Prior knowledge:
With 276 residues, the protein is α/β, with parallel strands linked by helices.
Amino acid sequence: MTLSVRKVLIPAAGFGTRSLPASKAIPKEMMTLVDRPLIQYAVEEAAGSGIVEVGIVISAWKTAIERHFRANPELEAFLLQKGKIEALEEIRRIADLASFTFIQQPEQRGLGHAVLMGEGFAAGQPVGVLNPDTVYDCSVPCLRQLLDVFDEKRATTVVLGRIDREGTGMYGVVRAERVADRVYRVRDLIEKPGPDKAPSDLGVLGRYVFTPGIFDALRETPSGYGGEIQLTDAIRRLLAKEPVYGVLFDGRRYDAGDKRGFIEATIGLAARIIEA
Length: 276
């Protein structure tokens, strides 16, 4: 086993209930955020971090995601014939972002279960996990910030961000000690504890780099909050066997998984494009 990270998983099989009714017929991950589908931001972050293989966990009805990242010779031929060279180059760029593998999740049993579906894709190697609902706008890609710490510590590394009281009921919250600038050793992790039980104001916000040990931890993790296999619970189990670190990211984050967050992401990212 080597410890260089070459693969990421993007879980995208859920029903997208926070975005209903828009996500009833259109996968939430394919909803347009400024000028591209939401999930493309995660793929571009991975590619910009040096990742060459992307596994996307989907359900049977989300074929639009697979079609978006596959080459489309008919469309390319049409664009070439019409002289739409800029559009042609962009379509080809999307398919060339990475080598794509699409993994079926037959039933939605939580984020932890979705990651477990990617064990064969990871093939005994460390793997990144990117939640496509979360969009990071950073000068150094958020995943790259985690990978730099992973390369140094050779241990599971998660992204951390400051959260308010409301956020303690939305995210996993860590008890951790600072070991370097923006780097923390995680000592405990609680899923959605609420403000009265939260051990800190540091939440885990949708980016992870795991050692292969996460898959054993996931298999040993029973259903938890909401009757689902929680990734947070598996990380907590992993803590008993190996160290886990957190990185307080540098940049801007948008939760584009709900309606308000999607609007905020649209305004923020559009403003950056206009300013550029």
